[in-house]
Write a structure and sequence with these properties.
Helix content: 25-40%
CATH class of the largest domain: Mainly Beta
Strand content: 25-35%
Number of domains: 2
Largest sheet: 5 strands, mixed, barrel
CATH superfamily of the largest domain: Nucleic acid-binding proteins
Structural class: alpha+beta
Order of helices and strands: HEHEEEEEEH
Mean pLDDT: 84
Oligomer: single chain
Distance between the termini: 82 Å
CATH architecture of the largest domain: Beta Barrel
Number of helices: 3
């Protein structure tokens, strides 16, 4: 084999290795990418059906029902409500009327879609709320106010 052909084969091999590494990195990144949706977006069908995502809003007052480590509650953005089920220990700051972000998947087996959470995060102090959740709550409040005025 001529030196020119050896160099060409080496370059092709290096490009193949770099391409395979890039494909593996992008695949791992895509699998771990989790998007945030509000209850209104979930109700509108914008959330993925077979992928994990995060839903955020407020825990609706009177909606928390505990059965051992199984918990059912409702996440609301004041315009739409999404029931959530979770098995595990909830964070200490988890309360009705407070902000929450839950990660999991939609379960369409029942009449209404239920969100099966694998992780529940409570907001960490009185002043913090994820910007997406605050924007969604503000938008839902404006929509609700405009409907009541009509």
């Amino acid at each position: 084999m001529k030196p020119r052909h050896k160099r060409f084969a080496l370059i092709i091999g290096a490009l193949a290795v770099i391409g395979a590494a890039a494909a593996l990195i992008l695949n791992a990144f895509e699998e771990n990418l989790v998007f945030f949706f509000t209850p209104s977006q979930v109700a509108a069908g914008e959330a993925p059906k077979n992928r994990a995502f995060r839903i955020g809003g407020m825990v609706k007052d009177g909606s928390v029902h505990r059965d051992g480590v199984n918990v059912r509650f409702v996440v609301t953005d004041t315009a739409h409500d999404i029931p959530v089920t979770y098995t595990g220990i909830l964070p200490d700051l988890f309360r009705e009327g407070k902000g929450v972000v839950a990660q999991g998947k939609l379960d369409d087996a029942g009449i209404a879609p239920t969100f099966k959470a694998s992780e529940v995060l409570a907001k960490h102090d009185e002043n913090y709320m994820p910007p997406e959740a605050q924007h969604a709550l503000d938008k839902a409040a404006v929509e609700k106010a405009s409907k009541t005025l009509k």
